[in-house]
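A protein record pairs a chain with a discrete description of its three-dimensional fold. The following entry can be read in just this way.
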Amino acid sequence: MVRVTSKSGISSIISVVLLILIAVSVGIIIYAFATGWVSSRLSGTIGPSTVLTVEKGWCNITLNSCTVMVRNDGSKTVSIVRAYVVDPVGHVYMQTYLTPIKVDPGNVSKVVVKPSDLTLHIGYTYKITLIANDGTETSTTVKAT
């Protein structure tokens, strides 16, 4: 009676078990990451809490001011604290609001921009940028009428 021993059977069983353990471990890690990420996205804890969107903007040369209707599509109330107007030549005019303009989530607020040293000219295009107290900003380009 001849006994045949082969070590290759033991090695292949061990390698299959190790591969299964590795696959299960990676699956658990991916599952833990994905469920944590998805639940935090659904609860709103990740992502921007403020998203400002310009609904409409215009400049009136008679009043020498620009008006911007801004919407807060985020989940946190913010206030507009500063505005910049860039004229066609590239000069930047700044206005700081002593009484910030509050924009509640889901609402639209009217922001009047009237820097003291800016003179509007009919037909010219101006870029208006609004800055909120949390650093969020939004911009629009309008033509003076």
Q: What stands out?
A: Helices lie at 8-43. The two ends are 107 Å apart (CA to CA).
